[in-house]
Amino acid sequence: MEMSAVRLRVTASSLERQRGAMAITMPFALIAALAFGAFAVDLGHVFLARTELQTAADASALTGAGTLLAGGSTPNWSSASASAATAVSLNSSDGVTLKNASVQTGFWNLANASSGLKATNITPGAYDAPAVQVIVSRAAGLNGGAIGFWFAKLFGVGSGPASATALAIVAAPGYVAPGGLFPVAIGKCIYSQYWNVQSGTPAIDPATGKPFTIQIGNGATYRGCEAGQWTSFQTDNNDVTTVRGLISGGNPTGLSIGDAIWIEPGVKTSIYANVPSNIDVLVPVVEQATTSSQPVIAFAAFHIDNATGGSGKYIEGHFIAGYKITASAGQVGPYYGAYVPPRLAR
Questions:
Q1: Residues 301, 323: contact at Cβ < 8 Å?
Q2: What is the DSSP string of 290-341?
Q3: What is the pTM of this model?
């Protein structure tokens, strides 16, 4: 009996100690739970506000990039910057209308993004695309200040900064969908002579003050370079019926840079009556327009002035710039006057 009484006293004492420990621990656990809940709610709030910032940055960069080549000449950097800055004010974050943004313009290398945004005054390489970068921030003195917290302020944290960055480019197509190409291939060496890489525009003939006129299809050479020939794309066929179908319908399958196409010299005189006049077209560019099969190295914009049959048998026209196309993707090509709608590079 005495041993039982001792055990009862020990058990009761242990229970009292446990109750005391729980009484001490419970307030701390409650505070931790409240802190975690506040953190979760405010984290979701900040995430939503930052998503709105990212949307604003994306939209503004795309808007600015959309004006870069609209004039068909040297990228209009000032217009792009102004358009991007204006577009920011059409967006809001956490109910605050955005007014401030950091806007930069320059060239973005599609093959080496790690090189960063290059200056606007460089001589662009084949894969340097005009770009607009926009940074939109919520911080002290910017767009209504930092993002306010709802519950974290109970623990001494009233607000926090956030920012979003977007970079949009305008680039030449690396792929053209079916129907997007006219069946003529132009030699790259012609562009080496009559295309201004730095300005992204055709070279100007000093005698006329206009782009140089080029004849394609009759074997005409310019400083030893044959301008171009007909192509039947990926089927080796140069009969009149086939070529007429390609003139009206374009390439039957999509073509990418690197795909081989057939060069078809000697198409009959009658085919030139089917060539439209005074029209802008998109054509493939090859290294040499003289051999039977060549890989596509770019896609270029060309204006057909007219076509002549008879003993001449040629298409006459000139290079153009600022030709916007939509039947394309894979924007990784060198720029020869044709570009696709702007896209986000990051």
A1: yes
A2: TSSEEEEEEEEEEEEEEEE-TTT-EEEEEE-S-EE--SEE---B--BSEE--
A3: 0.72
Cα 206 to Cα 189, 211, 212, 297, distances in angstroms: 20, 9, 9, 29
State the Cα angle at 171 between 103 and 126, rounded to 5°. 105
**Residue linked to tokens 């990926």:** 234
Name the nearest CA neighbour of 75 among 242, 200, 214. Answer: 200
Q: Do residues 102 and 85 lie in contact, with contact meaning Cβ atoms separated by under 8 Å? A: no
Handedness of CA 273, 277, 282, 286 (dihedral sign): positive
Domain ranges of the chain: 30-169, 175-339
Alpha-carbon distances of 172 from 82, 137, 176, 177, rounded to whole Å: 23, 31, 10, 14
DSSP state of 207: T
**What is the tens place of the pLDDT at every residue in 151-186?**
555 555 656 788 999 999 988 888 999 999 999 999
Tell me the C-alpha to C-alpha distance, in Å, between residue 168 and each of 98, 108, 124, 181, 183: 19, 9, 17, 26, 32
- Condensed to tens digits (0 to 9), the pLDDT of residues 236-268 reads 988 889 999 999 999 999 999 999 999 988 767
